[in-house]
């Protein structure tokens, strides 16, 4: 975005010290820590209530009992000197000589442009999509979607539910679904039964809250007579207009079996949300154990962009406690870089806690490794890009014609150009490309991420710079005008 | 555990206050604080729209506002995410349509 004059740009812009983007565990840790250090801090989140996905708050109008989830942090947030901007999307960030210019879209009265000296990005993650034939049929949904429905909306997504994925989240979801009276037609875990689990006892020691949650879910499963089928996955969803059946079986494709189900929940782990860190221009690298591309950070969690920090799952999946402590560390780093003196004990306490959490995360990823490339599940007509309905065959064709980056595939097929901006198809397309070219994932660059990182009404862009009006199309009375880069 | 779907049908709730929304012109009882997606699913409706390119049916997928699959029309505004939009009394929800760009 080019301003006609710098002065003009700045008169419309509010200058702040520290912006924290995302009000989940990492963002809450960062904002509370910064406030305790006496640093003026603005916390921004697109949801109506703070908490993020992990400490997701049941909507106020819908609470039968006081919300306990995340209360320890949210009470501290209430007491802290933190300016909260909720329902507010940060759709783009631009480098300025004296800070980072954040472009916001939110309710009336929300500033549209913030110039922040320091930024802590805490974007979290979303369920890792794993494409297979039929995965766009209504009834196929992520484990996160199903968990939200049953926990926060008290609605079952269907009657006969199949879970396919890996790791403890599935167990937790299964517990909630059985509790709510759903019929579970199967719980499939892609990984083999973790026989060497005892080796990780040391790392699990002290993680009582997590163990209790797992134990509770395990007992519900046992008393319902449900077993996990290890080394199994879903291969195909079948149905006329919506899910009616699923083809399941062992990973090697032997002994496939058809089961009746109206919902298939996919719990294959999480993908870090790197849209903003990419858009800002932070350098990223492929982290093999996470099977994800994550921003490169220094000991204070600062990225390769000066004054721009990333904390929590957005920099690699580590869970809520790692995220919270990373948020704290980033706040300490931001305060230190603004010239504040930081108490050494405070720093070493956070670092010790992070090391302890890291041991637990390592044990968990050894027990439930992120699923490998599941290309064998794909058929030529499997849709990879849900938004633009681009198939495996479409993408293979342009690779054969010479496309050798995810960005090139996007330009030629529109895969990743739709409303989700590649959040669902980016990794699968990259994995298909790597396999076709016979190259490791490390060499496959992520597609360029451009603002707006999510669809924003044209009005929202105009509010940031009224001069853009001359480029805007006539407004559609239905309000359907949406800018998609 | 009591499910909101039952509460909606019975009209008795220990959760939110009862509201009425129009789903494709039909009055439907819902609870304040519920998402549009939760109301549609508790009615047993899994298809929320059809795609513009091939007309394929789509419904709730990510449930957290990132995949843009669950789009419906709310009070005349197209392309609204059902999974992150809370119902309000008198809200008009239209499903099934092809998405518009």
Summarize the structure.
The complex is a heterodimer of chains A (485) and B (101). Helix content of chain A is 32%, strand content 22%. With 485 residues, chain A is an alpha/beta fold.
- Proportion of residues in β-strands of chain B: 25-35%
Distance between the termini of chain B: 42 Å
Main sheet attributes: strand count, strand direction, barrel closure of chain A: 7 strands, mixed
User: Largest interface, by Cβ-Cβ below 8 angstroms: which chains and how many residues each?
Assistant: A-B, 54 and 48 residues
By DSSP, the count of extended strands of chain A is 23
Output the structural class of chain B: alpha+beta
Instruction: Give the total of beta strands of chain B.
Output: 7
**Mean residue pLDDT of chain A:** 88
Proportion in helices of chain A: 25-40%
Number of helices of chain A: 14
Which radius of gyration of chain B do the C-alpha atoms yield? Answer: 13 Å
Give the quaternary arrangement of the chains. Answer: heterodimer
Give the strand order of the largest sheet of chain B, numbering strands 1, 2, ... along the chain: 2-1-7-5-6
Identify the overall geometry of chain B: globular
Query: pLDDT under 50 segments of chain A (min length 5)?
Result: 1-10, 475-485
> Approximately what portion of the residues of chain A adopt beta-strand conformation?
15-25%
Structural class of chain A: alpha/beta
> Termini separation of chain A (Å)?
14 Å
Spans where pLDDT lies below 50 across 5 or more residues of chain B? none
Shape of chain A: globular
Topology of chain B as a string of helices (H) and strands (E)? HEEHEEEEE
């Amino acid at each position: 975005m080019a301003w006609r004059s710098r002065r003009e740009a700045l008169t419309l812009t509010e200058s702040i010290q520290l912006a924290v983007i995302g009000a989940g565990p990492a963002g809450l840790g960062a904002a509370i820590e910064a406030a305790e250090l006496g640093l003026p801090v603005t916390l921004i989140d697109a949801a109506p209530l703070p908490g993020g996905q992990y400490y997701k708050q049941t909507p106020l109008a819908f609470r039968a009992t006081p919300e306990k989830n995340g209360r320890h942090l949210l009470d501290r947030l209430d007491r802290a000197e933190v300016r909260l901007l909720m329902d507010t999307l940060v759709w783009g960030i631009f480098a300025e000589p004296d800070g980072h210019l954040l472009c916001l879209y939110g309710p009336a009265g929300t500033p549209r442009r913030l110039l922040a000296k320091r930024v802590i990005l805490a974007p979290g993650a979303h369920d890792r999509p794993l494409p297979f034939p039929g995965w766009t049929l209504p009834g196929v949904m992520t484990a996160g979607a199903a968990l939200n429905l049953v926990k926060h909306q008290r609605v079952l997504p269907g009657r006969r539910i199949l879970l396919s994925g890996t790791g403890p989240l599935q167990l937790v979801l299964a517990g909630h679904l059985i509790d709510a009276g759903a019929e579970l037609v199967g719980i499939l875990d892609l990984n083999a039964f973790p026989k060497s689990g005892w080796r990780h006892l040391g790392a699990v020691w002290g993680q009582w809250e997590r163990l209790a949650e797992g134990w509770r879910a395990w007992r519900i499963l046992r008393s319902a007579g449900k077993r996990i089928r290890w080394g199994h996955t879903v291969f195909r969803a079948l149905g006329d207009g919506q899910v009616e059946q699923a083809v399941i079986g062992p990973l090697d494709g032997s002994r496939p079996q058809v089961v009746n189900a109206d919902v298939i929940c996919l719990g294959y782990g999480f993908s870090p949300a790197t849209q903003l860190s990419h858009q800002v221009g932070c350098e990223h690298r492929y982290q093999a154990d996470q099977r994800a591309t994550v921003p490169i950070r220094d000991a204070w969690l600062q990225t390769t962009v000066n004054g721009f920090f990333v904390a929590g799952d957005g920099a690699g999946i580590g869970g809520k406690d790692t995220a919270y402590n990373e948020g704290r560390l980033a706040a300490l780093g931001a305060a230190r870089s603004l010239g504040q003196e930081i108490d050494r004990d405070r720093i070493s306490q956070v670092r010790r806690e992070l090391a302890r959490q890291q041991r637990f995360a390592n044990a968990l990823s050894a027990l439930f490794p992120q699923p490998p490339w599941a290309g064998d599940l794909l058929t030529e007509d499997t849709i990879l890009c849900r938004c633009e309905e681009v198939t495996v065959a479409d993408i293979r064709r342009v690779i054969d014609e010479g496309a050798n980056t995810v960005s090139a595939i996007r330009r030629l097929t529109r895969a990743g150009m739709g409303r989700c901006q590649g959040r669902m198809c980016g990794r699968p397309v990259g994995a298909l490309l790597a396999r076709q070219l016979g190259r490791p994932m490390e060499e496959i660059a992520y597609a360029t991420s451009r603002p707006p990182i999510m669809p924003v009404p044209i009005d929202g862009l105009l509010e940031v710079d009224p001069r853009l009006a001359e480029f805007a199309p006539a407004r559609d009375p239905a309000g359907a005008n949406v800018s998609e880069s | 555990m009591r499910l909101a779907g039952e509460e909606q049908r019975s009209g008795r709730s220990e959760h939110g206050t009862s509201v009425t929304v129009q789903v494709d012109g039909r009055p439907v009882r819902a609870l304040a604080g519920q998402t549009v997606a939760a109301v549609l699913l508790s009615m047993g409706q899994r298809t929320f729209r059809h795609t513009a390119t091939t007309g394929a049916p789509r419904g709730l997928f990510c449930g957290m506002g990132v995949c843009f699959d669950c789009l419906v029309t709310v009070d005349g505004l197209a392309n609204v995410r059902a999974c992150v939009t809370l119902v309000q009394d008198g809200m008009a929800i239209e499903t099934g349509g092809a998405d518009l760009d």
